[in-house]
Task: structure prediction
Amino acid sequence: MRRYFGLLVVLAAVLGWARWARGAPPEIIDCHVHYKGNPAFLEKLAAKMDSVNGMAFVLTPPSEMAVVRAFIQKHPQRLIGFGEISLDDPHALEQVDRFQAAGFRGLGELTKSLKDLDDPSYWPIYERADKYGMILLFHTGVLLRENPNIPSSFSSARLRVTTLDLIARKYPKTIVIGAHLGNPDYAWAAELARWNPNLYFDVSGSTLQKKSDDYKFFKSVFWWSGVQGLAGPGPAPNAFEKLVFGSDINSDTLEGFDQERARYREMLKGCDVPSASQEAIFSGNLWRILQRKR
Ligand SMILES: [Zn+2]
Result:
């Protein structure tokens, strides 16, 4: 008996070590943090992620790649780099190569494109990302006007959530995240996520404020939980698991992080989403994606 007990102790130690070696998932992974070039923000962000046992995807313009890379190397458990390239930049492909070589795991937020997001002229960029196993984070839906007095050539119409369908189908091994759940095309966003296993959404932006009196609304778009054959073979997992957490905070403030987390929690509670599914939304989905070997 004693001998078996000893064996059990050894087994438990080995299992514990294996878990430690793999790295336990953080409690929260934020896929949507904009870096605007203020290094003090990176310090604040890393400290915040330490305090919440979190991890953040830092969306980094090409001009800031070196600074962010050096900072991430000091905080690899807390920060993951994404290259915020412009799809219309003639040097976009070269930038993808450089971001990948610098250890960045994805591209985004891809937004303000001069053509539809699924335009064939952008396919070489997506192909390159696919080759590298990089995640793609797209803006979807309505686009703000930062300065309404300055004429601009952008249009929300080119960022419609339906443009992600072709991208997700064409690059089935690439993980695609649509930011803002297609605001206001929520039903479209959810239906596309239902049939595209590689497509996820964050609900950052104004949506959770807009719907704060009616969180049950989201049950009408994420409706297929447990239904047989309606999201691929077999019974579908909880439909809300097509969501990931994104705060859309930027250099100006970190307060939005807690606020957005609280809103997510309230919405998921209002929709009776079980805790295992909430874990997937706040961390598990993205953790699994980050561990993938390509
Ligand atoms: Zn956006």
Summary: Residues 2-22 form the longest helix (21 residues). Residues 109, 111, 139, 179-180 surround zinc ion (CB under 6 Å). The chain has eleven helices and seven strands. Residues 8-21 have pLDDT under 50 and may be disordered.
